[in-house]
Amino acid sequence: MPLITRLTFAAALLVGFVTSASAEIYQFVATPHTSLNRIYRVDTTTGEMGACQFGLKDNTVGVTLCYPPGEGAGPQGPSDYGLVASNHQQEAGVFRINKRTGEMSICYVLNDEKIVCTPAAK
Fold first, then answer.
1. Per-residue pLDDT averaged across 48-69, rounded?
2. Sign of CA dihedral 118, 76, 97, 27
3. pTM for the complete prediction?
4. CB-hemisphere CA count at 13 Å for 112?
5. What is the mean pLDDT of the chain?
6. Whether the Cβ atoms of residue 42 and residue 72 lie closer than 8 Å to each other
């Protein structure tokens, strides 16, 4: 294969890798609780958590209520994080998983103010 063709092929692979690697910065999952309309978000690189839900507001279309990270829900060590909702219909939290280490935390909204997460364990 000529040098120009090899360089073009290598550049195309690099662009494809960067595009796919940056394609999923966040992962989203709904709470399993059947009477909550809350969605959790995790930054797949840092593990930082977020959550939002719909709120009613008189004579308007409503409002998006979002909760900031609190204890244990801020950035963690760099890794590959994801979210898993349990199958428990009354559970209002979700599991933050570290795909590289196998560790898990339970994350939930505390007192309708902020997201907190338990210490990671496996």
1. 91
2. positive
3. 0.77
4. 5
5. 85
6. no
